[in-house]
Design brief:
- By secondary structure, this protein is an alpha/beta fold.
- The protein has helices at residues 2-33, 87-93, 96-103, 127-130, 135-151, 165-176, 198-207, 213-221, 247-259, 325-332, 363-368, 370-393, and strands at 47-48, 61-65, 76-80, 106-111, 158-163, 183-187, 232-238, 268-272, 275-281, 287-294, 301-303, 318-320.
- The chain is globular.
- Helix 1 runs antiparallel to helix 12 and helix 8 packs across helix 9 (247-259).
- It folds into two domains: 2-34 and 360-393; 47-332, Rossmann fold.
- The relative contact order is 0.14.
- A hairpin with a 5-residue loop joins strand 9 (275-281) and strand 10 (287-294).
- It is 38% helix and 16% strand.
Protein backbone atom coordinates (compact mmCIF):
# COMPACT_ATOMS: atom_id res chain seq x y z
CA UNK A 1 0.00 0.00 0.00
CA UNK A 2 2.77 2.36 0.96
CA UNK A 3 4.63 1.50 -2.27
CA UNK A 4 1.59 2.37 -4.41
CA UNK A 5 1.00 5.60 -2.46
CA UNK A 6 4.58 6.65 -3.12
CA UNK A 7 4.10 5.95 -6.85
CA UNK A 8 0.94 8.12 -6.89
CA UNK A 9 2.73 10.90 -5.06
CA UNK A 10 5.68 10.85 -7.44
CA UNK A 11 3.45 10.84 -10.50
CA UNK A 12 1.33 13.67 -9.08
CA UNK A 13 4.47 15.61 -8.26
CA UNK A 14 5.75 15.20 -11.82
CA UNK A 15 2.40 16.36 -13.22
CA UNK A 16 2.39 19.41 -11.00
CA UNK A 17 5.96 20.17 -11.98
CA UNK A 18 4.91 20.06 -15.64
CA UNK A 19 2.02 22.46 -14.93
CA UNK A 20 4.34 24.80 -13.06
CA UNK A 21 6.95 24.62 -15.84
CA UNK A 22 4.35 25.34 -18.50
CA UNK A 23 3.06 28.26 -16.46
CA UNK A 24 6.56 29.71 -16.01
CA UNK A 25 7.31 29.16 -19.71
CA UNK A 26 4.24 31.16 -20.79
CA UNK A 27 5.30 34.09 -18.64
CA UNK A 28 8.90 33.96 -19.90
CA UNK A 29 7.65 33.88 -23.49
CA UNK A 30 5.57 36.98 -22.75
CA UNK A 31 8.67 38.64 -21.32
CA UNK A 32 10.66 37.93 -24.51
CA UNK A 33 7.85 38.97 -26.85
CA UNK A 34 7.12 42.23 -25.04
CA UNK A 35 10.64 43.26 -24.04
CA UNK A 36 11.39 46.90 -24.91
CA UNK A 37 14.06 47.61 -27.49
CA UNK A 38 16.45 49.25 -25.01
CA UNK A 39 17.63 45.87 -23.70
CA UNK A 40 15.15 44.96 -20.96
CA UNK A 41 16.84 43.03 -18.19
CA UNK A 42 14.29 43.43 -15.44
CA UNK A 43 14.33 47.22 -15.14
CA UNK A 44 14.09 50.10 -17.60
CA UNK A 45 17.28 51.96 -18.40
CA UNK A 46 18.03 55.62 -17.95
CA UNK A 47 19.04 57.23 -21.22
CA UNK A 48 21.95 59.63 -21.51
CA UNK A 49 20.76 62.98 -22.82
CA UNK A 50 22.69 65.43 -24.93
CA UNK A 51 25.20 67.53 -23.05
CA UNK A 52 23.68 70.56 -24.78
CA UNK A 53 21.19 71.26 -21.99
CA UNK A 54 22.97 74.48 -21.02
CA UNK A 55 26.33 75.77 -19.94
CA UNK A 56 26.54 72.98 -17.34
CA UNK A 57 28.86 74.83 -14.93
CA UNK A 58 28.87 71.84 -12.55
CA UNK A 59 29.97 69.41 -15.31
CA UNK A 60 27.31 66.78 -14.48
CA UNK A 61 25.74 64.07 -16.65
CA UNK A 62 22.06 64.29 -17.53
CA UNK A 63 20.15 60.96 -17.53
CA UNK A 64 16.41 60.59 -18.06
CA UNK A 65 13.72 57.93 -18.01
CA UNK A 66 10.47 58.78 -19.78
CA UNK A 67 7.79 56.06 -19.77
CA UNK A 68 6.50 55.53 -23.33
CA UNK A 69 2.89 55.77 -22.10
CA UNK A 70 2.45 58.71 -19.77
CA UNK A 71 -0.03 61.43 -18.98
CA UNK A 72 -0.22 64.70 -20.86
CA UNK A 73 1.80 67.29 -18.95
CA UNK A 74 3.27 64.55 -16.76
CA UNK A 75 5.18 65.39 -13.55
CA UNK A 76 8.97 65.42 -13.32
CA UNK A 77 10.84 63.76 -10.44
CA UNK A 78 14.52 64.60 -9.95
CA UNK A 79 16.47 61.83 -8.18
CA UNK A 80 19.95 62.43 -6.75
CA UNK A 81 22.13 59.43 -5.93
CA UNK A 82 24.41 59.07 -2.93
CA UNK A 83 28.19 58.71 -2.79
CA UNK A 84 29.73 55.73 -4.61
CA UNK A 85 26.46 55.19 -6.48
CA UNK A 86 25.45 55.65 -10.09
CA UNK A 87 22.22 57.31 -11.17
CA UNK A 88 20.94 54.02 -12.63
CA UNK A 89 21.78 51.95 -9.54
CA UNK A 90 20.07 54.32 -7.15
CA UNK A 91 17.01 55.02 -9.29
CA UNK A 92 16.49 51.28 -9.72
CA UNK A 93 17.49 50.18 -6.22
CA UNK A 94 15.34 52.74 -4.42
CA UNK A 95 12.32 51.72 -6.51
CA UNK A 96 11.88 55.02 -8.34
CA UNK A 97 12.13 53.46 -11.80
CA UNK A 98 9.37 51.00 -11.02
CA UNK A 99 7.22 53.83 -9.69
CA UNK A 100 7.82 55.85 -12.86
CA UNK A 101 6.74 52.93 -15.05
CA UNK A 102 3.64 52.21 -12.99
CA UNK A 103 2.49 55.80 -12.58
CA UNK A 104 3.64 57.57 -15.70
CA UNK A 105 5.96 60.32 -14.50
CA UNK A 106 9.30 61.30 -16.03
CA UNK A 107 12.52 60.94 -14.07
CA UNK A 108 15.58 63.16 -14.31
CA UNK A 109 18.64 61.60 -12.70
CA UNK A 110 21.70 63.88 -12.66
CA UNK A 111 24.94 61.96 -12.21
CA UNK A 112 28.19 63.10 -10.64
CA UNK A 113 31.52 62.52 -12.36
CA UNK A 114 34.52 61.06 -10.48
CA UNK A 115 36.55 63.93 -11.91
CA UNK A 116 34.44 66.31 -9.80
CA UNK A 117 34.45 64.19 -6.65
CA UNK A 118 36.50 61.01 -6.26
CA UNK A 119 33.64 59.27 -4.39
CA UNK A 120 31.06 60.49 -6.92
CA UNK A 121 29.35 62.57 -4.23
CA UNK A 122 27.48 65.71 -5.15
CA UNK A 123 29.43 68.65 -3.73
CA UNK A 124 26.65 69.83 -1.41
CA UNK A 125 29.20 71.48 0.92
CA UNK A 126 30.86 73.71 -1.70
CA UNK A 127 29.30 77.21 -1.88
CA UNK A 128 30.37 77.44 -5.52
CA UNK A 129 28.20 74.37 -6.28
CA UNK A 130 25.16 75.30 -4.17
CA UNK A 131 24.62 79.01 -4.87
CA UNK A 132 21.86 80.17 -7.17
CA UNK A 133 23.14 80.37 -10.73
CA UNK A 134 26.38 78.50 -10.00
CA UNK A 135 27.99 75.06 -10.17
CA UNK A 136 26.16 71.78 -9.77
CA UNK A 137 22.92 73.38 -8.59
CA UNK A 138 22.74 75.47 -11.76
CA UNK A 139 23.54 72.43 -13.92
CA UNK A 140 20.59 70.58 -12.40
CA UNK A 141 18.32 73.59 -12.91
CA UNK A 142 19.32 73.64 -16.58
CA UNK A 143 18.56 69.92 -16.87
CA UNK A 144 15.11 70.50 -15.38
CA UNK A 145 14.34 73.23 -17.92
CA UNK A 146 15.54 70.99 -20.76
CA UNK A 147 13.47 68.00 -19.59
CA UNK A 148 10.31 70.09 -19.23
CA UNK A 149 10.67 71.33 -22.81
CA UNK A 150 11.71 68.02 -24.36
CA UNK A 151 8.95 65.93 -22.76
CA UNK A 152 6.22 68.61 -22.48
CA UNK A 153 5.99 68.26 -18.69
CA UNK A 154 4.01 70.20 -16.09
CA UNK A 155 6.34 72.88 -14.66
CA UNK A 156 4.12 73.10 -11.57
CA UNK A 157 4.72 69.44 -10.70
CA UNK A 158 8.49 69.19 -10.35
CA UNK A 159 9.83 67.29 -7.33
CA UNK A 160 13.27 66.36 -6.02
CA UNK A 161 14.58 63.64 -3.72
CA UNK A 162 18.03 62.36 -2.83
CA UNK A 163 20.01 60.13 -0.50
CA UNK A 164 22.90 61.27 1.71
CA UNK A 165 25.04 63.66 -0.36
CA UNK A 166 22.17 63.59 -2.86
CA UNK A 167 19.78 64.42 -0.03
CA UNK A 168 21.94 67.34 1.06
CA UNK A 169 22.07 68.55 -2.56
CA UNK A 170 18.28 68.17 -2.79
CA UNK A 171 17.98 70.39 0.28
CA UNK A 172 20.28 72.94 -1.38
CA UNK A 173 18.22 72.92 -4.59
CA UNK A 174 15.01 73.45 -2.62
CA UNK A 175 16.65 76.45 -0.94
CA UNK A 176 18.24 78.13 -3.96
CA UNK A 177 15.48 77.35 -6.50
CA UNK A 178 12.32 77.04 -4.36
CA UNK A 179 10.10 78.44 -7.11
CA UNK A 180 10.89 75.42 -9.31
CA UNK A 181 9.79 72.67 -6.92
CA UNK A 182 6.36 71.66 -5.64
CA UNK A 183 7.96 69.32 -3.10
CA UNK A 184 11.17 67.72 -1.96
CA UNK A 185 12.32 64.74 0.09
CA UNK A 186 15.63 64.48 1.92
CA UNK A 187 16.78 60.97 2.87
CA UNK A 188 19.66 60.83 5.39
CA UNK A 189 20.74 64.29 4.26
CA UNK A 190 21.77 67.57 5.85
CA UNK A 191 20.25 71.06 6.07
CA UNK A 192 21.25 73.69 3.56
CA UNK A 193 24.22 75.74 4.73
CA UNK A 194 25.69 73.03 7.00
CA UNK A 195 29.23 73.36 5.62
CA UNK A 196 31.47 75.40 3.35
CA UNK A 197 34.36 72.91 2.94
CA UNK A 198 35.27 69.23 3.35
CA UNK A 199 36.35 69.56 6.97
CA UNK A 200 33.10 71.26 7.99
CA UNK A 201 31.12 68.70 6.00
CA UNK A 202 32.69 65.77 7.83
CA UNK A 203 32.00 67.44 11.18
CA UNK A 204 28.38 68.16 10.29
CA UNK A 205 27.87 64.58 9.15
CA UNK A 206 29.42 62.90 12.18
CA UNK A 207 28.32 65.24 14.96
CA UNK A 208 25.62 67.45 13.52
CA UNK A 209 25.06 71.05 14.51
CA UNK A 210 22.65 72.71 16.91
CA UNK A 211 21.31 75.92 15.43
CA UNK A 212 18.06 77.71 16.11
CA UNK A 213 15.09 77.36 13.78
CA UNK A 214 15.32 81.07 12.97
CA UNK A 215 19.00 80.83 12.02
CA UNK A 216 18.39 77.78 9.85
CA UNK A 217 15.36 79.31 8.17
CA UNK A 218 17.24 82.53 7.43
CA UNK A 219 19.82 80.53 5.46
CA UNK A 220 17.06 79.37 3.09
CA UNK A 221 15.35 82.75 2.86
CA UNK A 222 18.67 84.39 1.94
CA UNK A 223 19.47 81.79 -0.72
CA UNK A 224 17.08 83.24 -3.33
CA UNK A 225 14.84 86.25 -3.93
CA UNK A 226 11.78 84.00 -3.59
CA UNK A 227 9.22 84.94 -0.91
CA UNK A 228 6.91 81.92 -1.11
CA UNK A 229 4.96 79.80 -1.44
CA UNK A 230 7.50 77.18 -0.42
CA UNK A 231 7.81 73.52 -1.47
CA UNK A 232 6.43 70.76 0.73
CA UNK A 233 9.20 68.90 2.55
CA UNK A 234 9.56 65.25 3.61
CA UNK A 235 12.50 64.19 5.81
CA UNK A 236 13.61 60.56 6.27
CA UNK A 237 16.22 59.38 8.76
CA UNK A 238 17.31 56.20 10.52
CA UNK A 239 17.94 56.55 14.25
CA UNK A 240 20.93 54.17 14.00
CA UNK A 241 22.70 56.09 11.23
CA UNK A 242 26.45 56.23 11.97
CA UNK A 243 27.33 58.15 8.78
CA UNK A 244 24.96 61.10 9.00
CA UNK A 245 24.10 61.98 12.57
CA UNK A 246 20.30 61.90 13.11
CA UNK A 247 20.58 65.39 14.60
CA UNK A 248 20.76 66.58 11.00
CA UNK A 249 17.20 65.41 10.35
CA UNK A 250 16.04 67.48 13.31
CA UNK A 251 17.90 70.49 11.93
CA UNK A 252 16.33 70.04 8.48
CA UNK A 253 12.93 69.87 10.15
CA UNK A 254 13.60 73.07 12.08
CA UNK A 255 14.88 74.77 8.93
CA UNK A 256 11.79 74.10 6.89
CA UNK A 257 9.16 74.52 9.59
CA UNK A 258 10.65 77.96 10.16
CA UNK A 259 10.59 78.75 6.43
CA UNK A 260 6.92 77.73 6.36
CA UNK A 261 6.31 79.83 9.49
CA UNK A 262 5.16 76.81 11.48
CA UNK A 263 5.47 75.93 15.15
CA UNK A 264 8.31 73.65 16.22
CA UNK A 265 5.66 71.39 17.76
CA UNK A 266 4.09 68.98 15.26
CA UNK A 267 0.36 68.93 14.67
CA UNK A 268 0.27 65.15 14.48
CA UNK A 269 2.48 62.23 15.58
CA UNK A 270 1.99 58.67 14.33
CA UNK A 271 3.86 55.55 15.42
CA UNK A 272 3.71 52.63 13.02
CA UNK A 273 5.74 49.58 14.07
CA UNK A 274 8.63 51.70 15.24
CA UNK A 275 8.35 54.19 12.42
CA UNK A 276 7.63 57.64 13.87
CA UNK A 277 6.03 60.20 11.61
CA UNK A 278 5.59 63.81 12.65
CA UNK A 279 3.42 66.15 10.61
CA UNK A 280 3.10 69.92 10.37
CA UNK A 281 -0.05 71.27 8.75
CA UNK A 282 -1.08 74.50 7.08
CA UNK A 283 -4.06 76.46 8.39
CA UNK A 284 -6.08 74.70 5.70
CA UNK A 285 -5.00 71.28 6.95
CA UNK A 286 -2.49 70.50 4.18
CA UNK A 287 0.78 68.75 5.04
CA UNK A 288 3.67 71.17 4.60
CA UNK A 289 6.45 69.35 6.47
CA UNK A 290 6.69 65.74 7.59
CA UNK A 291 9.54 63.95 9.34
CA UNK A 292 9.98 60.17 9.37
CA UNK A 293 12.29 58.41 11.83
CA UNK A 294 12.92 54.70 11.23
CA UNK A 295 13.89 52.70 14.31
CA UNK A 296 17.11 50.68 13.89
CA UNK A 297 17.83 51.97 10.38
CA UNK A 298 21.44 52.76 9.55
CA UNK A 299 22.60 54.91 6.67
CA UNK A 300 20.49 54.34 3.61
CA UNK A 301 17.14 54.49 1.87
CA UNK A 302 14.29 52.54 3.56
CA UNK A 303 12.79 49.83 1.35
CA UNK A 304 9.79 47.54 1.41
CA UNK A 305 10.58 44.92 -1.23
CA UNK A 306 8.23 42.10 -0.24
CA UNK A 307 5.20 41.04 -2.24
CA UNK A 308 3.92 42.17 -5.60
CA UNK A 309 3.58 45.74 -4.35
CA UNK A 310 7.19 45.96 -3.17
CA UNK A 311 9.59 48.57 -4.48
CA UNK A 312 13.37 48.56 -4.75
CA UNK A 313 16.21 46.11 -4.38
CA UNK A 314 18.34 45.64 -1.27
CA UNK A 315 21.98 46.68 -1.72
CA UNK A 316 24.58 49.11 -0.38
CA UNK A 317 22.70 51.97 1.31
CA UNK A 318 19.39 50.39 0.23
CA UNK A 319 17.94 48.75 3.32
CA UNK A 320 14.85 46.60 3.88
CA UNK A 321 12.75 48.15 6.66
CA UNK A 322 9.18 47.21 5.80
CA UNK A 323 8.40 50.74 4.62
CA UNK A 324 9.30 52.18 1.22
CA UNK A 325 10.34 55.81 1.45
CA UNK A 326 10.10 56.16 -2.33
CA UNK A 327 6.52 54.91 -2.69
CA UNK A 328 5.42 56.84 0.41
CA UNK A 329 7.01 60.04 -0.91
CA UNK A 330 5.47 59.54 -4.35
CA UNK A 331 2.05 59.08 -2.77
CA UNK A 332 2.47 62.23 -0.66
CA UNK A 333 3.22 64.17 -3.88
CA UNK A 334 0.08 62.84 -5.53
CA UNK A 335 2.04 60.87 -8.13
CA UNK A 336 0.47 57.47 -7.57
CA UNK A 337 -3.08 58.40 -8.49
CA UNK A 338 -4.41 57.04 -11.78
CA UNK A 339 -3.61 59.25 -14.73
CA UNK A 340 -5.69 59.59 -17.86
CA UNK A 341 -3.27 58.39 -20.52
CA UNK A 342 -3.02 59.48 -24.16
CA UNK A 343 -3.11 55.97 -25.55
CA UNK A 344 -3.66 52.48 -24.28
CA UNK A 345 -2.79 51.90 -20.61
CA UNK A 346 0.95 51.75 -20.04
CA UNK A 347 2.87 48.54 -20.58
CA UNK A 348 3.42 47.30 -17.03
CA UNK A 349 6.70 45.59 -16.19
CA UNK A 350 7.52 42.92 -13.66
CA UNK A 351 10.86 43.93 -12.24
CA UNK A 352 13.74 41.54 -11.70
CA UNK A 353 13.94 41.76 -7.93
CA UNK A 354 14.01 37.98 -7.56
CA UNK A 355 14.40 35.04 -9.99
CA UNK A 356 10.63 34.51 -10.07
CA UNK A 357 9.58 38.10 -10.86
CA UNK A 358 11.47 38.91 -14.03
CA UNK A 359 8.60 38.38 -16.43
CA UNK A 360 6.89 40.90 -18.65
CA UNK A 361 3.09 41.02 -18.93
CA UNK A 362 1.16 39.66 -21.88
CA UNK A 363 -0.65 41.80 -24.43
CA UNK A 364 -3.92 40.84 -22.75
CA UNK A 365 -2.64 42.32 -19.51
CA UNK A 366 -1.57 45.52 -21.26
CA UNK A 367 -5.03 46.06 -22.70
CA UNK A 368 -6.53 45.51 -19.26
CA UNK A 369 -4.48 48.38 -17.75
CA UNK A 370 -2.38 49.05 -14.65
CA UNK A 371 -4.84 47.67 -12.10
CA UNK A 372 -5.07 44.39 -14.01
CA UNK A 373 -1.27 44.23 -14.16
CA UNK A 374 -1.05 44.06 -10.40
CA UNK A 375 -3.81 41.45 -10.40
CA UNK A 376 -1.83 39.33 -12.86
CA UNK A 377 1.21 39.41 -10.61
CA UNK A 378 -0.89 38.40 -7.62
CA UNK A 379 -2.54 35.64 -9.66
CA UNK A 380 0.85 34.20 -10.56
CA UNK A 381 1.85 34.18 -6.91
CA UNK A 382 -1.42 32.51 -5.89
CA UNK A 383 -1.03 29.76 -8.49
CA UNK A 384 2.50 29.05 -7.32
CA UNK A 385 1.29 28.85 -3.71
CA UNK A 386 -1.51 26.45 -4.74
CA UNK A 387 1.00 24.16 -6.47
CA UNK A 388 3.23 24.14 -3.38
CA UNK A 389 0.24 23.44 -1.11
CA UNK A 390 -0.91 20.56 -3.31
CA UNK A 391 2.54 19.01 -3.19
CA UNK A 392 2.66 19.34 0.58
CA UNK A 393 -0.79 17.74 0.85
CA UNK A 394 0.56 14.80 -1.11
CA UNK A 395 3.49 14.59 1.24
CA UNK A 396 5.94 15.73 -1.45
CA UNK A 397 8.61 18.29 -0.70
CA UNK A 398 8.03 21.56 -2.55
CA UNK A 399 11.69 21.42 -3.56
CA UNK A 400 11.50 17.90 -5.04
Amino acid sequence: MTYHTDIVRKNASKSLDKIAAAFRYSWLQAARENAPSDGFDGSPKLSMQTSAFGTNPGDLRMLVYAPPHRAAKAPLVVILHGCKQTAQAYAQGAGWLKLAVHHGFVMLCPEQKPSNNRNSCFNWFQPSDTRRGEGEAESIRQMISKAILDYDLDPKRVFVSGLSAGGAMACALLAVYPEIFAGGAIVAGLPHGSATNVSEALGAMSEGQSRSASELGTVVRNASPHNGPWPKISIWQGDADKTVNPLNAEQITLQWTDVHNLSETPDQIDNIEGHTRRVWLSSAGQILVESHTIEGLGHGTPLATGGSDGYGTVGPFLIETGISSSSTIAASWGLTRKYELHTEPMDQSLFKESPTTSDKLTSATRSAGPTSAVSQIRLKSKIQRVIISMKRALGVSSDS
